[in-house]
C-alpha cells in the first residue's frame, strides 16, 4: 500500500516511515506540514494518508483542517488522523464529515507504540473500516449522554436553567416569568433530576446545572481554540 505521512515531529515521522516500510508498505512522501499536501497527493496518488491533528505554523488545527479538505476533495481517500489528546471537537468534525466517504481512523499517538496494533489499524482502514480509538469513543459517548439529558428538558425548564446560569435568584426568575416561587422551585427540582444532579451537602447543584447549560450552548467561558478533554499522550 502507498502511504503519505504528514507529521511535524521528526522522530515520530521517521518512526512511522520505518514501521510502515518494515510492514511491507511504501511511504510515498513524509511531510513536516500540510503546505504542499494537495500537490503531493496529486503527484503520488497515495492509498492512505496519515496526518497529525496539529501542524505548523500554529500547531492548533492545521492537520484536521487539511484532513477535512482532503475529505471534501477526495472523499474516498482513506485517512488516519493521529492526536496527542482526545479532542472531541476534531473527532466529531471528522465523523460528521464522514457520511458516505471513504475509510477513516482517529487514533491517539500512544497506539503507535504498540506496533502490531497500529499496523493492524492501518490495514483495517485501508480495507474500508472506520477505526476510532477506544478513548475517543468513550469521550464522545460521555458528551452524547450529557446532550441527551439537556434534550430531556422542557422549553420552560430550559428558560429557567438559562436564568440560573445568569445568576438570577428564584425570586427574580419568578418575577420575570410571572410564576410563583413554588412553581420555579418545582421546575428547578425537575431540572436537577433530569440532569442527574443529586442533593449534596455542598449545595453546588445550581452551579453544576449552570455549567451544563453553558457547555451545551458553547458559552462555557473556555479560551478560543481547541479544548483538550483527555489526558496527555
From TrEMBL:
Keywords: DNA-binding, Phosphoprotein, Transcription, Transcription regulation
Gene Ontology process terms (BP): phosphorelay signal transduction system; regulation of DNA-templated transcription
Modified residues (4-aspartylphosphate): 52
CDD domains: LuxR_C_like, REC_NarL-like
Domain Response regulatory, chain residue ranges per copy: 2-124
SUPFAM superfamilies (UniProt xref): CheY-like
Protein's recorded name: DNA-binding response regulator, NarL/FixJ family, contains REC and HTH domains
Amino acid at each position: 500500500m502507498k502511504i503519505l505521512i504528514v507529521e511535524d515531529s521528526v522522530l515520530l515521522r521517521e518512526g512511522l516511515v520505518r514501521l510502515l516500510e518494515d510492514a511491507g508498505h511504501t511511504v510515498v512522501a513524509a511531510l513536516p506540514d500540510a503546505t504542499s499536501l494537495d500537490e503531493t497527493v496529486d503527484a503520488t496518488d497515495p492509498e492512505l494518508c496519515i496526518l497529525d491533528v496539529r501542524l505548523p505554523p500554529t500547531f492548533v488545527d492545521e492537520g484536521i483542517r487539511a484532513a477535512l479538505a482532503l475529505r471534501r476533495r477526495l472523499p474516498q481517500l482513506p485517512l488516519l488522523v493521529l492526536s496527542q489528546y482526545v479532542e472531541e471537537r476534531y473527532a466529531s468534525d471528522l465523523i460528521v464529515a464522514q457520511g458516505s466517504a471513504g475509510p477513516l481512523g482517529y487514533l491517539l499517538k500512544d497506539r503507535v507504540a504498540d506496533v502490531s496494533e497500529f499496523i493492524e489499524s492501518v490495514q483495517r482502514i485501508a480495507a474500508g473500516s472506520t477505526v476510532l480509538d477506544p478513548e475517543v469513543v468513550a469521550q464522545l459517548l460521555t458528551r452524547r449522554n450529557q446532550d441527551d439529558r439537556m434534550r430531556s428538558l422542557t422549553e420552560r425548564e430550559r428558560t429557567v436553567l438559562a436564568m440560573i446560569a445568569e445568576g438570577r435568584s428564584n425570586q427574580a426568575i419568578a418575577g420575570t416569568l410571572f410564576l410563583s416561587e413554588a412553581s420555579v422551585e418545582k421546575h428547578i427540582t425537575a431540572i436537577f433530576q433530569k440532569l442527574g444532579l443529586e442533593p449534596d451537602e455542598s449545595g453546588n447543584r445550581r452551579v453544576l446545572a449552570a455549567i451544563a447549560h453553558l457547555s451545551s450552548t458553547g458559552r462555557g467561558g473556555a479560551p478560543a481554540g481547541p479544548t483538550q478533554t483527555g489526558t496527555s499522550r
